[in-house]
Please model this.
Amino acid sequence: MGSGSCSQKGRTKEGRLLRRVVVTRPSEASADLAADLAVHGIEALSAPMLRVEAVPPPAPFPDPAQAILLTSANGAEGAARLTERRDLPVLAVGDATAAAARAAGFSRVSTASGDATGLVEHAVHRCRPTAGPLVWVSGEAVSTDLAADLAARGFRVERRIAYRTVQAEALPTAVDFALRHQTVDGVLFFSPRSAEAFARLVQQAGLEAACGRVAAYCMSDAIARAASKLAWRAIHVADGPTKSALVSTLLQGRNEAAPMARRSED
Model:
């Protein structure tokens, strides 16, 4: 994994080197990832960069609606708050969002390829412009305008904002300590806003130099660009917009160059 040393972190009972990474996902989404990493002898330090807050119900859910478009797991939870209809078709951007929609009780869930372009094509394939509006449930901040893209294809899209994300105000004490004492190998990023927030807090804490000894692992090119506000030892981009792809990138240990042709869920 580049030039960083893991020996200072010790070894597991099985003799494997113990590595430590910082996970910037919201706390509620980090537990499964931490468990996955622990299997490989990697300790995860939690540093949630974003906190999700529900917003007051917007305009009523259109009735009838043809289908629901989701670009995030938080959007799935928001859709469940906005409508009691669990039989509406749900078109999810990727596997994680689809799983959240099923967990929220939606019974007709299909999955696109993992990015906004794929979701647009999925909607065009599965839906008809004359069959009623598509309802896009999202957060306040989005990186792609699905409504405009689908309107160009003849669809009517009604957006419903169900949540907002609030950035953290400081690095967790354990993460600050680990960076200062060079006991971190990498930082995992799952969204551009998380990467931007982390960079801001690192600069605020005067820890830019510490990141020069750490690798950034990003789920997409857009995230890598946001993370590049800091001078990392290396920036690695996953081969796909999924948690498993990002973990694979961490485990494989890529070359120092960062490829720039990947995707991400919102």
The mean pLDDT is 87. The longest strand covers residues 157-167. DSSP finds ten helices and eleven strands in the chain.
